[in-house]
Amino acid sequence: MRPNEWKWRYAILFCDCTFVFGAYYYVDLPSSLQVDFVSGEAMSCNANYSMLTSACCDTCLGLGPERYSLLYAFLFWTSAILSLLSGWVVDRIGNRVSAIAFIILTSVGCNLFALAVTPPFRNTSVMFPLMVTGRMLLGFTNGPLRIVQDRLVSYWFGGDSFVAISFITLTRRGGTFLNFLITANLSVHFSFTWAIWFGATLCSSGIIIASVMVLLDVHGVKKLDAESQQPSRRAINITEITNIPKTFWIHVAMISFETSAFTSFVAYGPEYIQLRYGYTKVLASYVIGATYIGPVFLGPFVALTLKKIDCNGLVATGITILCVPAYLLLAYCLTIPPVVITLLLGIIYSFDVIIMWKVTIDMIPQAVFGTAAGVAIFVSRLLLGITNFVVGAIVENTRQYNHQKDIAAYQNALLCLTALSVFSVSCGIFLNVLDIRNGDGVNKRFAKNTDTDVTDTTELIANDKLNKEYKCIASNGT
């Protein structure tokens, strides 16, 4: 029996989707309570500020924009380094041990972060170091655990991975969407501390789900025939990485620029929405949370649409172009409701993230999937960390706790995000020119149409070209 013939693989997919749900809930938790993290006692709602007219805080931690940006920068930089190393580790020790080990470390990070904002550690010299330590451990979510998830999809759904990827995306962003939907409400109706600990508990529940997933995977592999057994663990030749088509790495750069802009907007958006439109903390959280409505509710439909079009590079480039006017409209146009623009950004993100992992699964052989995906995530997370740090510096250096000047500071940050989107589109144009010329498989419809002077077996040869190259390299290295 082959992997795609085992009916219980959908149970593995369910566990693969849900065991990181709580971790993704926690990644953007500071964003849903941004004003409480950034502002000091001078901006307390109990002072001279009204939640209806200005950005004020109930529990004021007083980090400021720069230290707040470090919460995201350290998370993404740690994720980048861990992805580079853990991709190789996952290829060596396998999915099962990696899933259990990484989700435990992630849960420890969530609980440390929650401990940091709990009395008696709150507003002490210990608070920020504990926060940073927790966020660094949470970095296992944004890189290593993603590699484990996609490696499992590559193995059990390798032949038709679009829908599986869409459900992975749905639950990843479902966790983030739930955070923006309920965290601010929990803080208002219960307490800031309870809101933080709820997320930590949700993250820790992933350990149980990961254990069930491992048991299912062990049982499933025993049912497979010898040819379909998971590949043996062997030393990886550097040539196997360099032999991956250049179009894949250009595609990684394109998606990295766009996700850096998107993630930075999500991290800093709530306070800007409060300042610019006069929304409450809860309403601003809803507006930013709308960016994840697309990935949560449209993921499977996006996957089916992409499968029908079969031109991933052209679609990604075309839809990313829309980000350029979107950020400019958020900065300078008050007539359009912000939720309309955040919904558009969410739809764009849905296409980009599904395309990224579909291309990754299609172009990277199973034997080196973890290592190559780790390199790709390293590049993406490194740029994410730099972008968050730069945006934080822009806001910190130009704001003066004056309403109009604070808005101007965020407008400068949105111009930075616009520039990143322009870089992304430029990479996309270059990617499509190379792919259509070389037939690397990012735009498969064009690759199929260009192979005309061939025999009946050509399609099979084209689809298996990369695997043959890797087998040849492996045999030469032994």
Word description of this protein:
76% of the residues lie in helices and 0% in strands. The protein contains 24 helices and no strands. Helix 6 packs antiparallel against helix 11 and helix 16 crosses helix 19 (338-363). The longest helix has 36 residues, at 403-438. Residues 48-54 and 450-478 have low confidence and may be disordered.
DSSP, total strands: 0
List segments where confidence is low: pLDDT < 50 over at least 5 consecutive residues.
Answer: 48-54, 450-478
CA radius of gyration is 23 Å
Q: Find the structural class using helix and strand composition.
A: mainly alpha
* CATH structural class: Mainly Alpha
Distance between the termini: 29 Å
The biggest beta sheet is recorded as: none
Helix-strand pattern: HHHHHHHHHHHHHHHHHHHHHHHH
CATH architecture: Up-down Bundle
- What is the 3D form? globular
Q: What percent of the residues sit in helical stretches (DSSP H or I)?
A: over 70%
**CATH level-3 fold name:** Growth Hormone, Chain: A
How many structural units, i.e. domains?
1
CATH superfamily: MFS general substrate transporter like domains
Helical stretch tally: 24
Give the overall pLDDT as a whole number: 79
